[in-house]
Amino acid sequence: MHIVIIGNGIAGITAARHIRKLSDHRITVISKETDHFFSRTALMYVYMGHLRYEHTKPYEDWFWDKNRIELIRGTVEKIDFDQKTLHLSADSRVVKHQPTLLEKLTKTVFPTIQTPQTLPTELKYDKLIIATGSVPRWADEYPRELAGVQGLYSFQDLELLEKNTQNVQKAVIVGGGLIGVEMAEMLHSRGIHVTMLVREASYWNNVLPHEESALIGQHIRRHGIDLRLSTELRTVKGRARVEAIQTKEGEEIACQLVGVTIGVMPNVQFLQNSPLRINRGVVVNEYLETNLPDVYAVGDCVEHQQPREGRKAIEQIWYTGRMMGETVARTICDTRTAYQPGVFFNSAKFFDIEYQTYGDVPAQCPPDVASVYWQHPTKEVALRINYQKENQAVTGFNAFGLRLRHEVCERWLKQHQTIEYVRQHLPEANFDPEFFERYEAQITATL
Ligand SMILES: Cc1cc2nc3c(=O)[nH]c(=O)nc-3n(C[C@H](O)[C@H](O)[C@H](O)COP(=O)(O)OP(=O)(O)OC[C@H]3O[C@@H](n4cnc5c(N)ncnc54)[C@H](O)[C@@H]3O)c2cc1C
Fold first, then answer.
1. CA gap 195, 1 in Å, rounded
2. Which atom of ligand 1 is nearest to the CA of 349?
3. What is the average pLDDT across 253-262?
4. How is domain 138-262 classified at the CATH fold level?
């Protein structure tokens, strides 16, 4: 059986690895972005000089030959679902690993997969996994064709940013989500003055409760970013390249770069006008099956038809892509398995502040939920715990500048432990014993 996977991100690659663990099926992974899987979340560190691109690849280049996972670098332009055939761009090629001298000496060289060097532009599949990720959201006010206006998602975006920020002194970032703040940090690390335009009255306040939103807003400003709240972009000005932007509030800000970070959306454009059911993303059932036989979808590009309680239909995060990849591999290898994402978790970084969230901590607390919040009087450290008023069971945690143990928080949420229990056992959840020893009394007294 030939399994073809479109996309070599975390979702597609996890599916490929697990199918190989469970079977001997022929596996082909296609990507238009890079020859090999890399960690998208580490892209910022490449720009900041902490890592080289090579370091963002979780597997050595010989791994794919060793595991008989065929790689194609190219674009899937169209899919004929009736004929189970993919149409690839003319520039598509088989990715061949050239062993290094060290690999030859240490004999980490594996027989090369017998794939033709030149590819026909049609590829047949028996089962297809769509794992095409996201694309940056865009709006009409942002002229794509003007040099210096760009989003940040792909490796090519990173290369473009490298080129676009040569001799740049001032940048404006539009949108203040997680990618926006990463971009601000990246540009700031190169001495570029950054203005960030955020439509809301408080930073990321559609996700963060008021106190956390204020804390992060202050932190961003403390790092020298000119954070403008309640401010929207009207237009971008420039002839050959960006020269300034104008806000809806009437201000003109000179800049040579505009970063568009107003969110991402499922990358499904090329699948439109086909029998595949697409809404905002590729619609899947709980088994990650689409409406078409032998066609599955995983990762950022997916829209769950019936998301589990407390989960969103589209969740564009790293670990859910990994879980979906693992789940679909089981189904394809004859153990039909439902996707069970469990307790929601996410983590990110706002400059120096690490952020973790578990369970459900909405920006606005619903009437049946109570919330307790502790913030260090002088340091940028905070903890919030939400719980049901009726039975006192905890429903979510937000931690800032403080690392919680994943397995402990997950267990408490699954077991519906009460807020009183959590208060008493809080040290079990912490990763920073020294910190907790010093502040535990304060935290538990406040919570
Ligand atoms: C800068 C940045 C920072 C992030 N930080 C975090 C974080 O801290 N925590 C977190 O949870 N998430 C983070 N994310 C989100 C996370 O990276 C994504 O959720 C995850 O990478 C999605 O994985 P995926 O496998 O679904 O898709 P992707 O990683 O997007 O991979 C899809 C691949 O498919 C390829 N492809 C698409 N269409 C075609 C086609 N027609 N033909 C051939 N190939 C195609 C694409 O080129 C791409 O290589 C971040 C994202 C970005 C951009």
1. 53
2. 8
3. 96
4. FAD/NAD(P)-binding domain (3.50.50)
228 Cα to the center of ligand 1, angstroms: 28
The pTM assigned to this predicted structure is 0.93
* Distance from chain centroid for Cα 365: 25
User: Sorting pLDDT into bands at 50, 70 and 90, what band is 75?
Assistant: very high
Confidence of residue 115 (pLDDT cuts 50, 70, 90): low
390-428 pLDDT tens trace: 999 999 999 999 889 999 999 999 999 999 999 999 888
Mean pLDDT within 69-84:
97
Cα Rg, the chain, nearest whole Å:
24
Q: Do domains 2-134+265-332 and 138-262 have the same CATH topology?
A: yes
What is the band of 434 on the pLDDT scale with cuts at 50, 70, 90? low
Specify the pLDDT at position 176: 86
Q: Which atom of ligand 1 is nearest to the CA of 325?
A: 25
What CA dihedral angle connects 118, 121, 125 and 130, to 10 degrees? 110
In CATH, what number does 345-446 get? 3.30.390.30
Residue 74 DSSP code: S
Q: Is 187 in the pocket of ligand 1 (CB under 6 A)?
A: no
For residue range 118-172, list pLDDT tens digits in order: 667 899 999 999 999 999 999 887 888 899 999 999 999 999 999 999 999 999 9
Q: What is the CATH code for 2-134+265-332?
A: 3.50.50.60
Name the one residue in this structure whose structure tokens are 């082909």.
28
What are the domain boundaries of the chain? 2-134+265-332, 138-262, 345-446
Nearest CA to ligand 1 atom 44: 31
CB atoms within 10 A of CB 104: 10
| Cα–ligand 1 centroid distance for 177 (angstroms) | 16
Q: What is the full DSSP assignment across 193-241?
A: EEEEE-SSSSTTTTTS-HHHHHHHHHHHHHTT-EEETT--EEEEEESSB
**Residue of minimum CA distance from atom 38 in ligand 1:** 132
**Ligand 1 test: best mutation among 317, 322, 345, 349, most atoms within 8 Å of CB?**
317
- What is the distance in A from the centroid of ligand 1 to the CA of 239? 32
Q: Is the CB of 39 under 6 A from ligand 1?
A: no
For ligand 1, whether the C-beta of 314 sits within 6 Å is no
Average pLDDT over residues 88-100: 86
135 in contact with ligand 1, CB cutoff 6 A: no
